[in-house]
Amino acid sequence: MASDQRENPSGSRKREIRDLADRYAPERRSWRNRNSYYYGLDTDYMRFLVSPGQRVLDLGCGMGDLLAALEPSHGVGVDFSEVSVRHARKNHPDLEFHLGDIENPEVLQKLEGTFDTIILSDTIGYLEDVQVMLESLHSLCHRRTRIVVAYYSNFWEPLLQVGEWLRMKMPGSEMNFLPTADIENLLDLAGFGVVKRDWQQLIPRSLFGLGSLVNNSIATLPLVRRLCLRTYVVARSLHRAFEPPQSCSILIPCRNERGNIEPAIQRLPAFCDDMEILYVEGHSTDGTFEEAERVQKAYPHLDIKVMQQDGVGKGDAVRKGLSALRGDAWMILDADLTVPPEQLPKFWKALCEGRGELVQGSRLIYPMEGQAMRLINLIGNHAFSRIFSWLLNQRITDTLCGTKVMRTDDYRELERNRAYFGDFDPFGDFDLIFGASKMNLQITEIPIRYQDRSYGETQISRWRHGLLLIRMVVFAFRKLKMA
To answer: Residue-wise over 463-480: b if at least 16 C-beta within 10 A, else e?
Structure first.
């Protein structure tokens, strides 16, 4: 049910903003049509950030067009422009709109339940106290709620002013001066952790196709993208308490690792009261499967399961194991034991404390043992880490460390959204990293000491897998930067 709570915003600036919004509301659709290329790209990127079917709250919703475009299962908009809200209700009767000032705590307190995504599209530019308003949002958040702040770059202020003079842009009020770093700082002060940030639209006009060409290529490059018109910051509430997972499934993909099967069990700390261990064997020639079955029988007090993958490759083995686990959370331990099992409690602690939502290891911080990683592999991993940090808009120092930890309910959501990327990953690492990035999950890395193998030989081919990594870069660019 929509509610009406006409506010008398304090201060001449806020009254001016409201009056201007009321005055131009009937013309807003024509202004949007005049700048359809800009609004179309902005909407497309917001649709990339917000999956359909979510519970979405749009604060400063205007006429509700953006909210409707996101296809929410339950969409709620709030705005203090009476004329805008009236148009929103008429144009989008399936959505819920409230009239009120979002800086008035009573307005937000009347909203029911929590939301999956809360949008502030340009809204922070009009607020009197951004930090206080952001602090009021925690009550509307659950563990996986994401705050999406969209704003314009301060570099564009002179050009936007010229656009108003030339009647190319709808007239607006004076807005807050908020570079991206200040938006991040305000979110941090209000108790929100920034997950990612991005910049879009170096050319906000079509220009007979030139705009699309530049925006899909040059505008995405490091440094250059900071000159784009639109800034997007995604954050999560750090105040929302959640129940730590009570059980953990440890997935051990193994192929030709017979000598490491029992040591993995013997060295695994009991960091959780309820632990399940799954060996997923990959058609070995050294008796790994038989050894896993022997170990299962030799340790009856442990919950050990042994299965054999149907296809080939680590990615197939990981997906096989993840489809069968029972734990509230899971972690992957590579059977070569180059990441010591003794390190796993660190990962479990980080997940339980909410430090990250996909927690993975980084082998490239501490010095490595002997020949744990060959020089050319080390150089390649450092190069790819920089590339993927740019592609994912989160800092990633090691994409191929096999040790990863995640809550099972987050992974099930990742599975449901896997169609966006498809079955593309022979490693298993990128399926998880790309999927987590698309879901706007916090990816956190824990430095580990990478050790030499004590049994068997590496199954990584530097050249064949190097080419596959290049393919992953191209694939990620198409899916994440040209979305």
So the answer is: eebeeebeebbebbbebb
**Residue pLDDT, tens place only, 245-298:** 999 999 999 999 999 999 999 999 999 999 999 999 999 999 999 999 999 999
| Residue 401 identity | C
CB-based burial label for 435 (10 Å; 0-12, 13-18, 19+): buried
SS3 288: helix
pTM (global) more than 0.85:
yes
Using one digit for the tens of pLDDT, what is the confidence trace for 461-473? 555 666 777 888 8
Asked whether 403 and 347 are in contact (CB, 8 A), the reply is yes
Question: For residue 229, which of 248, 201, 255 has the smallest C-alpha distance?
Answer: 201
Q: How far apart are CA 225 and CA 173, in angstroms?
A: 26
CA distances from 227 to 199, 202, 340, 392, 403 (A): 8, 7, 44, 19, 37
What CATH number does domain 3-237 carry, 3.40.50.2300, 1.10.10.10, 3.30.230.10, 3.40.50.150?
3.40.50.150
d(CA 289, CA 297): 13
